[in-house]
Automatic annotation (TrEMBL), chain B:
The keyword Transport applies. GO terms for cellular component: plasma membrane. SUPFAM superfamilies: MetI-like. It is found in: Cell membrane. This is Sugar ABC transporter permease.
From TrEMBL, chain C:
The chain crosses the membrane at residues 47-72, 102-132, 144-164, 189-217, 238-256, 292-314. It is a multi-pass membrane protein. It is found in: Cell membrane; Membrane. It comes from the Bacteria. Pfam families: BPD_transp_1 (PF00528). Its main location: membrane. It comes from Actinocatenispora rupis. InterPro entries: MetI-like (IPR000515), MetI-like_sf (IPR035906), Sugar_ABC_transporter (IPR052730). GO terms for cellular component: plasma membrane. Keywords: Membrane, Transmembrane, Transmembrane helix, Transport. GO terms for biological process: transmembrane transport. This is Sugar ABC transporter permease. The lineage of its organism: Bacteria, Bacillati, Actinomycetota, Actinomycetes, Micromonosporales.
């Protein structure tokens, strides 16, 4: 059980590139922290520095208040689960799980008991005498987990442990990782590039980009109050819609019409000096509803009518896509997310709305959609700062 | 994939050509070794009169037993030592980060392409002054040196195939670098080590230049050198039969290796080349 | 403390930084002080050096020391038959060797053997590589057979060729007009030496080329076929360009090996009738003639020749020195 503190931790490679820049984070005992971001953002490097597999160029790493920058990985008492599982192919499952204990010179009886215990937690008992080559992907993943939990380390580090599994198994393993972590109460740092995994697993999420922390917070905070365009675009699926807007008096002019500025938004804009006239407006797909299904409070909302391009029915809800003219948002902040996910939807002149399953929406027909003006986010277009995130 | 008749005949012809290319010189020396001495000059490819006399003679009269033992002993000892110290170096080169790695690689490449004849004189001089001339050790030392580059290159190619994360995992599991090597990497590298050992042994077994330069009698002379000296012996007999028989004797281990370890030898020889 | 309380109590909002020049600039001052090498990294280095030490020591003692010794000898008059006349004579040995027609003759012979045999080996080796790589029947058998010339002792193969061309004895000599003795004629003897070299080393060349063939993806061949390329076009336009690195490495290995040609010549002619290679002439001066000064000079000149050839390959053709890569580290 341990508290991990990263104090201005920096990683600079020999060629001068800065992979992680002044990373500050206090990880509490028993906490489950997720490092998330697009590939190359420095999340794995950060994890490797905590593990001791990468040298720390600058700053200090403390575990339980003790500086461990120069401590070898084996003396940090931290376990790690790798993306490839890194199971030893020449050892049986029992030997794999028991390896850390064998290295720690634990006596045979204790070792057997601990391995059996771990195997039971992970439902691996029938496979103890098999070699990793004879196991399925999910079983291998569990062996990797077993090797981590068997010696009750101070902390678990997990480097995209689920990314080699198929979608269904991934959801299953996600739950069991969460359950094991709660049960053992071991401090955990978990790296992923999958925002859904991040949102569902973590007590706290650290969003990284190009070696810098963008925002740290609970899943709910990141979803409701993203500090900038990058976080707003990264968190949430489907992604937040972005349209250009012009502030005029008490409203913003957009292709969706004139959106009045609510009391809350006006106040948070006043908190910033030099609010530009041209801004970027962000609205989550979930903020929309089919206007015909909104009864009360409709008067306070904004409506917008356009022809529906595509409808995707998910059963529990429907997604309706609209194309917007002259509404492309060109931002470096969003471009990076697009590059990483390979999609071109974010910032494109397209609007995604999530509607109630009862909506009679049809492709090619016009539809009136409604949204609450208080649900919009106003971003400064150059720095990408969310002017409405509040404090 | 079904093979058409045309493909089958085409590949059969290609295979036969390869087989003839390889076998004609080898079978010729075998034929010679089985020919009765009176028929050496009949010019026929296959023997008309068979005899095993040549084989008996090289051991009974020619004293070929001793050079054969020298070859086997020197080859095995050199290979063993080269493999042990070569594995250490290959591991460091393939897996660890350290200043001097390029120097190490460059140095062994330099030795691999070095004209061995340039070393003959200095070694001849040094070994004579140290009393190593015409001894097993006198040959083992240069053999180790010249098999090391091959050992280091081939093994580091094999070691690179072992996933990095296994070592990181071992470190996280509490292993020292040596424990990671000993308990995780070494067992996985065994097939590569065996392959490399075969290649190194073939290299030692084949050597001729050092064998004739650094020995003066059968006490350390290896088989290839001994065969060459069959000619120089002032025997009244024609040495053709003895040479051929001895040649076949030292070819047998190679054929056995090739038959058993074909796959491994091929992968060993090709592994270094692809990486380049 | 619940996780939510913890999260809010530790709320740690940071102003997002901009990427680009700014980040690098702020990291500037830290780059000046040497970063502390961690215990892990230091123990890694120590281990690496310890592991390399035995190999390095052996290689240095057995080669570097003799090389230096050779270079020193090359500046001396030192003939074991006249040990009293030993003296430092500067570059006189080099003058003597470089103006000696025997040296240049051996040089020419060596180069002819190297160029002709490697050129033919490349063509034959490519054909053999294609057979070994693509044959649909008996692939294992063919590969096993091809390894025999590679593994066989050079001296054994050389004797086979010698007897084959010996008048009266050999099956090949039978094919020649009566009274001809090819191994005593310079041109014919060199041709036989080249033949022996080619036979022995083509399989090695073929194996290296096969490694190159194996990295050309099958799908590329199929794509080229769909694009309308004939078999020959696929080979010259797709396979060969992709194999270039493997071909260059194979050529480098073989050329450096051929320049040292010794065993075959020793058995077939022992350098008689103008068939001496550089290795043979050097050896004769050293061990036969016991002229250490001249012999060492020849050694050094041979070494320089080898280094020049390697440099041409590596710098001129961009041949990658094997093992120079360092992939997979992070």
């Amino acid at each position: 059980m341990a508290e991990i503190v990263l104090d201005k931790v920096t990683k600079k490679f020999a060629d001068g590139t800065v992979a992680v820049d002044s990373f500050n984070l206090d990880i509490a005992d028993q906490e489950f922290v997720i490092l998330v971001g697009p590939s190359g953002c420095g999340k794995s490097t950060t994890l490797n520095m905590i593990a001791g597999l990468e040298d720390i160029s600058d700053g200090e790493l403390r575990i339980d208040g003790k500086r461990v920058n120069e401590v070898a990985p084996r003396d940090r008492d931290i376990a790690m689960v790798f993306q490839s599982y890194a199971l030893y192919p020449h050892m049986t499952v029992r030997e794999n799980i028991g390896f850390p204990l064998k290295l720690a010179k634990v006596d045979k009886a204790t070792m057997k008991q601990k391995v059996d215990e771990a195997a039971q937690i992970l439902d691996l008992t029938p496979y103890l005498d098999r070699k990793p080559g004879a196991l399925s992907g999910g079983q291998r993943q569990r062996v990797a987990m077993g090797r981590a939990i068997v010696r009750s380390p101070k902390a678990f580090l997990m480097d995209e442990p689920l990314s080699n599994l198929d979608a269904k198994l991934r959801v299953q393993m996600r739950t069991s990782i969460s359950r094991i972590q709660k049960r053992l109460g071991t401090t955990t740092v978990y790296v992923t590039h999958d925002q859904t995994e991040a949102m569902t697993l973590g007590d706290r999420i650290v969003i990284m980009r190009a070696g810098l922390i963008q925002q740290v917070g609970s899943p709910q905070e990141l979803y409701e109050r993203p500090v900038n365009l990058f976080v707003a675009g990264f968190i949430g699926s489907p992604s937040m819609n972005f349209v250009p807007g012009t502030i005029a008096e008490n409203a913003v002019d957009t292709v969706l019409g004139k959106i009045p500025l609510t009391e809350r938004i006006r106040r948070s804009l006043e908190g910033h000096k030099d609010v530009p006239r041209d801004v970027i407006i962000g609205i989550r797909p979930e903020a929309f509803e089919d206007a015909s299904l909104v009864d009360g409070g409709r008067g306070e909302g904004v409506t917008f009518t356009s022809q529906v391009d595509i409808v995707e029915s998910m059963g529990s809800e429907k997604f309706a896509y609209f194309s917007l003219e002259n509404a492309h948002v060109d931002s470096e902040h969003l471009a990076e997310i697009e590059r990483d996910t390979g999609s071109e939807e974010i910032g494109a002149a397209q609007l995604v709305t999530e509607l109630d399953a009862r909506s009679p929406v049809r492709e090619g027909r016009a539809l009136e959609v409604w949204f609450d003006p208080d649900s919009i986010h106003v971003f400064e277009p150059h720095s990408g700062v969310n002017l409405t995130a509040g404090k | 994939m079904a093979i058409t008749a045309r493909q089958r005949s085409g590949w059969t012809v290609a295979n036969i050509i390869v087989a003839l290319y390889v076998l004609i010189p080898v079978v010729w020396i075998l034929s010679l070794s089985l020919k009765d001495p009176s028929t050496f000059t009949d010019g026929h490819y296959f023997p008309r009169k068979f005899t095993f006399e040549n084989y008996v003679n090289i051991f009974k009269v020619g004293g070929f037993g001793r050079p054969l033992i020298n070859s086997i002993g020197i080859g095995l000892i050199s290979t063993l030592i080269a493999i042990v110290i070569g594995t250490f170096a290959a591991y460091a080169i393939a897996r660890l980060e350290f200043p001097g790695k390029r120097l190490m690689l460059g140095g062994s490449l330099l030795i691999a392409m070095f004209p061995q004849v340039s070393l003959v004189t200095p070694l001849f001089q040094i070994e004579r002054s140290l009393g190593l001339f015409n001894t097993w050790i006198g040959l083992i030392i240069p053999y180790i040196t010249f098999t090391l580059p091959l050992t280091i290159y081939t093994l580091s190619a094999f070691l690179r195939e072992i996933p990095w994360e296994l070592e990181k995992a071992a470190k996280m599991d509490g292993a020292t670098p040596f424990q990671a090597f000993r308990q995780v990497i070494a067992p996985l590298a065994m097939p590569g080590v065996v392959t490399t050992a075969i290649l190194a042994f073939i290299l030692c077994w084949n050597d001729f230049l050092f064998a004739i330069s650094l020995t003066s009698s059968n006490s350390a002379r290896t088989a290839p050198a001994a065969i060459a000296f069959f000619t120089g012996a002032s025997q009244f007999e024609d040495p053709t039969g003895s040479i051929s028989a001895a040649a076949i004797v030292i070819t047998i281990p190679i054929i056995i290796f090739v038959l058993i370890f074909q796959r491994r030898i091929v992968s060993g020889l090709t592994s270094g080349a692809v990486k380049g | 403390m619940t996780s939510e309380e913890r999260a809010s109590s530790r709320e740690n909002l940071q102003q997002p930084g901009r990427l680009g020049e700014g980040t690098v600039a702020t990291a500037g001052p830290t780059a000046v002080q040497k970063p502390k090498v961690s215990e892990g990294r230091r123990s890694e280095r120590k281990l690496a050096w310890m592991l390399c030490a035995p190999a390095a020591v052996v290689m240095v003692v057995v080669t570097i020391y003799p090389i230096v010794y050779s270079i020193l000898l090359s500046f001396q008059r030192y003939d074991l038959r006249f040990p009293n006349q030993k003296a430092w004579i500067g570059l006189a040995n080099y003058g003597a060797v470089l103006t000696n027609s025997f040296w240049w003759h051996a040089f020419a012979v060596t180069m002819i053997i190297t160029v002709v045999s490697v050129a033919i080996e490349l063509v034959l080796g490519m054909a053999l590589a294609l057979v070994m790589h693509r044959t649909l029947i008996g692939r294992g058998t063919i590969r096993t057979l091809a390894l025999i010339p590679y593994g066989i002792v050079t001296v054994v193969a050389a004797f086979s060729w010698q007897y084959a061309w010996t008048p009266g004895t050999g099956y090949l000599a039978q094919l020649l007009p009566a009274g001809s003795a090819p191994l005593t004629q310079q041109a014919q003897a060199i041709a036989i030496i080249i033949l022996a070299e080619i036979w022995k080393t083509t399989p090695f060349m073929a194996l290296l080329l096969m490694a190159g063939l194996a990295i050309v993806p099958d799908e590329l061949q199929k794509a080229a076929a769909m694009d309308g390329a004939s078999t020959w076009q696929r080979f010259t336009r797709v396979t060969l360009p992709l194999m270039k690195p493997a071909i260059l490495v194979a050529l480098l290995f073989r050329v450096l090996d051929a320049v040292r040609v010794y065993d075959n010549i020793y058995i077939l002619t022992n350098g008689a009738n103008g068939t001496s290679s550089l290795s043979i002439i050097t050896y004769h001066n050293l061990i036969g003639g016991l002229n250490l000064g001249i012999g060492s000079t020849m050694s050094v000149l041979m070494f320089i020749t080898v280094v020049i050839i390697a440099a041409i390959f590596i710098k001129g053709f961009g041949t990658a020195a094997p093992g120079s890569d360092n992939q997979g580290r992070r």
